[in-house]
Amino acid sequence: MRYYENEVGVLITQDAVQQRVKELGEQITRDYQGRDVTLLGIMKGSVFFLTDLLRQIDLPVTFELMGVSSYHGGTETTGEVRITHDLAKPLHGQHVIVVEDIIDTGLTMRFLLENLAARHPASVKLCTLLEKPARARVQVPIDYKGFVIDDHFVVGYGLDFDEKYRNLPFIGVMKRD
Ligand code: IMP
Ligand code: MG
Q1: If you take atom 8 of ligand 1, which residue's CA is the nearest one?
Q2: Which of 21, 146, 175, 177 is deepest in the core (most CB within 10 A)?
Q3: Pair type for strands 37-43 and 154-155
Q4: 177 CB neighbour count, 10 Å cutoff
Q5: pLDDT digits (tens, 9 = 90+) for 45-94
Q6: Is 8 a domain residue?
Q7: Is 108 in the pocket of ligand 1 (CB under 6 A)?
Q8: Residue with CA closest to ligand 1 atom 15
Q9: Ligand 1: distance of its center to the CA of 126 in Å?
């Protein structure tokens, strides 16, 4: 019996996650031939995905991290987002791929993409491990997508419930959703 088994069931296995990350890395490698790429991970959730994805990209690639947190009015996000950890270096002229764990309402990413555009990178694309389209409130253009999931609260592979379960190597679903 593993410690999490009463609370979390498997939605996407570790093997399926790793296989999909490998495919995304190969796709990015093809799309960015001849260019340097900066992966921009959004803390903390995307860090696990980011470090695996980096190792599947066969190009000169660097990474940076940004922290954002959404304000919540009750249980619903207000769409107002605060930068909790900003970049030390400018993105001017760089080919940036934003790496996110999940696009839920899309409000966090809409704010972030507007903020990044003001820094004049050469290009910005979005790579998310998961998308939950049932909850979308604004449309954000997703260039690379791992999996589309139903409206579950998911944990594992970086995703948390109250900061816990980030260490699970698969995508799980809370049993008392
Ligand atoms: P959005 O602004 O509603 O798209 O929220 C995106 C952020 O909410 C993600 O970066 C996650 O941190 C968090 N989030 C949304 N859905 C889930 C989930 O099912 N599990 C864990 N975190 C989630
Ligand atoms: Mg997050």
Answers
A1: 104
A2: 146
A3: unpaired
A4: 9
A5: 999 999 999 999 999 999 999 999 887 655 566 777 899 999 999 999 99
A6: no
A7: yes
A8: 104
A9: 15
Pocket test for ligand 1, best of 68, 100, 101 (most atoms within 8 A of CB): 101
Catalytic residues: 104
* 106 in contact with ligand 1, CB cutoff 6 A: yes
Q: What is the CATH number of the domain that holds 64?
A: 3.40.50.2020
Report the b/e string of 108-132 with b at 16+ CB within 10 A. Answer: bbbbbeeebeeeebeebbbbbbbbb
Give a yes or no: residue 113 inside a domain: yes
pTM of the model: 0.95
In this structure, the residue with its CA closest to atom 12 of ligand 1 is 45
- Asked if residue 56 belongs to a domain, the reply is yes
Per-residue confidence (pLDDT) for residue 164, from 0 to 100: 96
Q: Which of 84, 74, 144 is nearest to 108 (CA)?
A: 84
Q: What are the tens digits of pLDDT across the range 126-168? A: 999 999 999 999 999 999 999 999 999 999 999 999 999 999 9
For the chain, the domain total comes to: 1
Can you give the residue range of the structural domain that contains 148?
A: 14-152
**pLDDT tens string 17-47:** 999 999 999 999 999 999 999 999 999 999 9
